[in-house]
Amino acid sequence: MARQRSSEKKREPTSSATSPARRVLPMELQIGDRITDERGEWRVIGRPHTTLGGKSAHVRVELVEQPNVIEVKTWGAHERIKREASDRRGGQPMMRLTRRGSLLVAFCLLTSAATAYAECAWVMWEERPLKSGEWRLATTTVSTFETKRSCDDIAAVANRSEASRAQASEPPSLFRCLPDTIDPRGPKAK
């Protein structure tokens, strides 16, 4: 087994957690970051923005020792700035948590929308005569239902009854259940 020479020590990867100060572009500054210049230490209090077609970057900062001193610092958009990350910021793990949270909210909204669709009211429609395309609300004792199953059961009974009493002079009707959001008659004319 070969020994590792002292001059060939493995380098540990550096991260923002191990090195609190690093050089970043002005647009990478975040609220809470600290920057230092000849006048003292400044805290970023606003999101960066650019002007002159993206060539200049600006950010609102306040003097740490005197929070009432607020200025707008300006740099070239490609100029690197020495930034010290704030203790409040979570970095990549915090971003992942935020993304997961927003995905969870979106999933909940989609699930509740699907549940609302499943729980909508159901309406029994009658097409008379069959295959005519002329629909109207069913004239049975009940034409709206809370569940699709109960509506389908009554429609099946009505269709069997209609088929058994159909006469040669009058074609049979078709009974069908649709959600209350769908009107088979089509859009209303203006």
Identify the notable features of this structure and list them briefly:
alpha+beta; 2 helices; SH3 type barrels
How would you describe the overall organization of this protein?
It is a single chain. Helices cover 24% and strands 27% of the residues. The protein is α+β, with helices and mostly antiparallel strands. Among the domains are: 21-84, SH3 type barrels (Roll), CATH 2.30.30; 122-179, no CATH class. Strands 2, 3, 4, 5 and 6 form a five-stranded antiparallel sheet that branches. β4 (49-51) and β5 (56-63) form a beta hairpin. Residues 11-19 have low confidence and may be disordered.
What coarse outline follows from CA principal-axis ratios? rod-shaped
Regions with pLDDT < 50 over 5+ consecutive residues?
Answer: 11-19
Order of SSEs:
EEEEEEEHEEEHE
Structural Rg: 35 Å
How many strands, what sense, and barrel or not for the largest sheet? 5 strands, antiparallel
Tell me the span between the first and last alpha carbons. 88 Å
